[in-house]
């Protein structure tokens, strides 16, 4: 889980499952690029199904607010946030996400954290 909003005093970054997010500053304004991204979450694995017993790659019900990550120069960056979609993992159905690079200043101002790693 990559966390960047408001819980810096409560998170134990020594846990291998929790890491601070890098913010993608240099990607602001870019609307089309070829990149491999990873959408991860702990929601269901099929529409109306049970929650995943282990971390899976893709989004489904219960994954809203989860991170969409891209590896840039060996570091993972939170490039998106899961919003919603129709069904789960349907190749002809688009998922809807929020582009983090458009909100980096807002994130810093509202979390009070100014030492994010930056791209």
UniProtKB/TrEMBL annotation:
Q: Where in the cell is it found?
A: Secreted
Q: Which InterPro entries match?
A: Trypsin_dom
Q: Does the keyword Cell wall biogenesis/degradation apply?
A: no
Q: Which GO terms describe its cellular component?
A: extracellular region
Residues in domain Peptidase S1?
1-112
- The secretion signal range is none
Q: Which biological processes are named by the entry's GO terms?
A: proteolysis
Q: Which domain of life is it from?
A: Eukaryota
Q: GO molecular function: any one?
A: serine-type endopeptidase activity
Keyword terms, alphabetized: Disulfide bond, Glycoprotein, Secreted, Signal
The protein here is known as Peptidase S1 domain-containing protein
